[in-house]
Design brief:
The protein has 269 residues and is an alpha+beta fold. The chain is built from six helices and 13 strands.
């Protein structure tokens, strides 16, 4: 990402934060019926506190660092969604984060907005511009410094995929698969590494052990977003556990924050 773009993005975040503080929330008025919206949206509510409900009602995204999959707040009620969550359980991530947020649509077509979210997440070239804050270096980097599309494919279940080679500094380039499911008012985005992620000569993450997913459901009055990111990473026998946790969960958080700021916030009226 160019330095000027980074500065502009940071300025944009500050403006949004300032607006939120002045107005009390991002919405024109509180979106009060959050629990009933979640209930009818096809997500099973598991571990959502009242304070988190209040944050969602005020337009704030929720980010939670989890110990394991038993602590997730929502569970998508679909075959594809459950299969994806099972994959997280299989890899037993030592670093796990979730995020969820709501986009009210008082005057917009929810189906059209869901189509826009699908197109937005399939445009993976823009992922090179996602700003990622490095705690170690105390400055912004690109989440991906390079993404090269190798193949586009369609699977037997009619989901679509994009095979890429991508680079996340300081790791070596690796292949990954982005996959997309659409079923009526539900859309699922997921990504996973299909090759090991290596740091110099060390295999930091085995193949298919870094997974990020975003589940989106459209109701007439709102879109509900639920994201999960998990990785089973080698921590060098615990010596670099904290650094690895900050690196991998920070990248997932950066992706969800970027999506919220670039897609959700501009559509809030």
């Amino acid at each position: 990402m160019h330095r000027a773009f980074k500065a502009g993005y940071v300025f944009f975040i500050l403006i949004c934060a300032g607006f939120s503080l002045l107005s009390g929330n991002l919405y024109a008025e509180d979106f009060r019926d959050v629990r009933s919206l979640i209930k009818k949206s096809g997500f099973v509510e598991k571990n959502i506190s009242q304070s988190e409900i209040d944050q969602l009602a005020a337009g704030e995204p929720i980010f939670t660092f989890l110990q394991d999959m038993d602590g997730i707040s929502l569970s998508p009620d679909s075959v594809e969604g459950q299969e994806i969550l099972e994959r997280y359980k299989e890899i037993e991530p030592n670093f796990l984060i979730e995020s969820f947020f709501i986009l009210p649509l008082p005057e917009q077509d929810s189906a059209q907005t869901l189509n826009e979210a699908e197109r937005f997440l399939m445009d993976i070239s823009q992922f090179e511009g996602v700003p990622y804050w490095s705690e170690e270096h105390e400055k912004y980097f690109d989440l991906f410094s390079e993404i090269e599309i190798l193949e586009r494919k369609t699977f037997d279940d009619e989901s679509r995929g994009i095979v890429v080679e991508q680079k996340m500094k300081p790791f070596k380039p690796h292949k990954a698969l982005y996959r997309y499911w659409r079923n009526g008012s539900d859309f699922i985005y997921t990504s996973k590494n299909t090759e090991a992620i290596r740091y110099k000569l060390i295999k930091a993450v085995r193949e298919e052990n870094m997974v990020t997913s975003l589940f989106v459901h459209a109701e007439p009055e709102a879109l509900v977003f639920y994201g999960v990111g998990g990785v089973q990473a080698f921590t060098f026998f615990g010596m670099f556990g904290e650094r690895m946790e900050t690196s991998f969960t920070g990248r997932t958080e950066a992706f969800f924050r970027w999506f919220h700021e670039e897609f959700v916030v501009p559509r809030i009226k």
